[in-house]
Design a protein that fits this description.
Layout (H helix, E strand, L loop, with lengths): L38 H23 L13 H20 L3 H13 L1 H8 L1 H4 L22 H20 L10 H7 L5 H23 L3 E3 L14 H23 L3 H28 L3 E3 L1 H23 L13 H24 L3 E3 L13 H15 L2 H33 L5 E3 L1 H27 L12 H19 L3 E2 L14 H20 L4 H19 L1 H5 L7 E2 L1 H22 L10
């Protein structure tokens, strides 16, 4: 890993001289203020403030004719959220951080199309809009769109255009201080690779939170549907928002300039807060509404990601402008192992603890949580192995993949608990279900930590050129095909029993099936291009996930009378066998050839 040596008088390291307004010292002093801001950036700031004004005035005017009252006094919150991005960008520009300010507008603008599509639901069917910050319907009378809706949509359009204008060089002339500063890289490839691992992990959690229900509702006029059950416009808008969040975080993590990385993350965070915060406040303050975990997941994960990447890069800038996240693999393995052991313990407590409680009665027998026992033993054992440094690097790939088993079983357990708790007012979620939820959260944290440890190990390995293990191609391909049926088809069949699925009867448990299937497929694909020991570990971890899934019928089949093994069980066994065969071949075969050029 090399970096360019810079002198105080030649900060760019290639003969270019710094201007008085652009003194480059890493990313600590950017010194690009209003005078250096290109014309497109100034126009973008103007459009951003226009957008804020429209987003504030729209709800005040009313998005529908004769609107019912809002669920709470939301105007101060809406004003704060609408003005946050342009005010933050302007302050950054005025303080000599023009690159960061421009990136804030770009990050915030990414979510504008999705937010506009969600708001368009008032044009077709205002009754299906779950927006208590705007209104809470009290009758089934039609809600016809009003002028405020068009102001709201215009505000989103202005925010999107502002983001486009501020992106890239923002119209700066080649050779100008702004363009030169933007072209200078301040982050190493290793730093970006590690940041990308964090971004993928936390952004995925945020996406899951965004597609979940915004709150729980006992109000028949205020729906609490998630992305699947929402109206078409809301569902499509939510998908666009989720894609924008994921894409923005990945782009920020891979940015060569720390200023751009920080700005885009801040912009995405501010725009996500404009979506999630009104939902959180509604769940806490509006009658007949209760908080749901989705908005909290989305917001907290992005706050953690922003703080992690921004503080990590800024705190480790060197005079040569290279950001280094000096994480030693051994220490990260230790943290990962501890998280794995805690995940296993939480899973076992969730397996044996009560899933639901009934007032004045004993807790009923439950089934969905039983696979938490093998999942907890698997993850806890591998986590303990990570604590021994000689085994850590070998065990880590299998451990990271095996965490998918906890998510798989944990989602099924929570689905059963929430369904049972919704039957009557005297039925409540038990401690076992909450420990299952804790296990899922710990598994996500362990996956992030394990990914960072792996990224740290690969810093000195050139992965730009890869070839596939032809010897494992056939069993890996078979395993991938089998996995689609293993997780997509029912594990057992019985009369009057409908199992959750990926393509039909999509419920909370379906998210576990979908995530586990993606984990198995991703591990199989990566293993085909990995070194022998890593490939075998990845495939064994995937086989363990499928194996835990295959235990669903023998462990939970008693929940339905006269249950018989379904096609999902047989395909799970076939998938597990194919993965074990591939692991055996990979461990004995040569590594795929890499281009040794540096």
């Amino acid at each position: 890993m090399t970096s360019r040596t810079q002198s105080p008088h030649d900060p760019f390291g290639d003969g270019r001289q710094a201007t008085a307004s652009s003194v480059h010292r890493g990313d600590q002093v950017e010194r690009l203020g209003w005078g250096d801001a290109p014309g497109h950036l100034r126009l973008a700031l103007g459009l951003a403030f226009l957008s804020a004004g429209l987003l504030i005035v729209g709800p005040v005017v009313g998005v529908v004719e004769d609107p019912p009252a809002a669920g709470y006094a939301s105007t101060p919150l809406l004003v704060l959220l609408a003005a946050a991005a342009p005010v933050l960008a302007l302050v950054l520009v005025q303080r000599g951080r023009a690159l960061t300010g421009a990136a804030v507008l770009t990050g915030a603008g990414l979510l504008a199309p999705g937010r506009a599509l969600v708001d368009l639901v008032f044009l077709r069917d205002g009754l299906s809009a779950a927006r208590p910050e705007f209104l809470v319907p009290t009758t089934l009378a039609d809600l016809r769109p009003a002028a405020g809706l068009w102001l709201l949509l215009a505000g989103h359009l202005a925010a999107a255009v502002a983001g486009v204008l501020a992106a890239g060089r923002a119209g700066a002339a080649p050779g100008s201080p702004y363009a030169l500063e933007l072209d200078e890289s301040t982050t190493s490839v290793g730093s970006r690779r590690r940041a990308l691992g964090w971004a993928l992990a936390f952004a995925t959690i945020a996406v899951v939170g965004l597609v979940m229900a915004p709150f729980q509702s006992d109000n028949a006029f205020l729906l609490d549907d998630d992305m699947i059950g929402a109206s078409t416009l809301v569902g499509l808008g939510t998908v666009l928002i989720a894609v924008a969040v994921l894409g923005g975080c990945v782009y920020a993590a891979g940015a060569a300039r720390s200023a751009v990385s920080a700005g885009v993350l801040l912009g995405v965070l501010v725009a996500t807060a404009a979506v999630a915060l009104p939902q959180i406040v509604a769940g806490l303050t509006v009658d007949l509404l209760r908080p749901a975990p989705g908005p909290y997941l989305a917001l907290i994960s992005l706050v953690l990601l922003t703080g992690l990447i921004v503080s990590g890069r800024a705190g480790r800038e060197r005079e040569r402008g290279t950001a280094e996240l000096t994480l030693e693999a051994g220490r990260v393995h230790l943290v990962t192992g501890v998280l794995g052991v805690l995940t296993g313990v939480a899973s076992l407590i969730g397996a044996f603890g009560p899933q639901v409680t009934i007032e004045a009665l004993d807790s009923p027998e439950t089934y969905a949580n039983r696979p938490l026992v093998p999942a907890g033993i698997l993850v806890g054992s591998l986590g303990a192995a990570l604590l021994y440094h000689r085994w850590a690097a070998t065990v880590r790939p299998a451990f990271v993949v095996s965490l998918g088993a906890v998510v798989l079983v944990g989602a099924s357990t929570l689905d059963a608990a929430f369904t049972g708790a919704g039957i009557g007012d005297d039925i409540h979620i038990g401690a076992g279900a909450w420990f299952a939820a804790v296990a899922v959260v710990l598994a996500a944290a362990a996956a992030v930590s394990g990914a960072v440890a792996g990224s740290t190990e690969r810093d000195d390995v050139d992965l730009t050129e890869r070839t596939v293990h032809t010897s494992v191609a056939a069993p890996v391909a078979a395993a991938i095909l089998f996995s689609v049926g293993a997780f997509g088809l029912p594990m057992f069949t019985a009369r009057d029993f409908v199992a959750p699925g990926i393509w039909t009867e999509f419920r909370l448990a379906s998210w576990g099936l979908l995530i586990a299937m993606c984990v198995v497929i991703a591990a199989s694909v990566i293993a085909a291009m990995a070194r022998p020991a890593r490939a075998a570990a990845l495939l064994l971890g995937a086989a363990a996930v499928v194996g835990v899934h295959a235990l669903e019928f023998p462990l939970t089949g008693d929940r339905a009378q006269d249950a018989t093994a379904g096609s999902g069980t047989w395909l799970s066994l076939a998938c597990c066998l194919a993965l074990l065969v591939a692991a055996g071949i990979a461990s004995a075969g040569p590594a795929p050839e890499h281009d040794e050029k540096r």
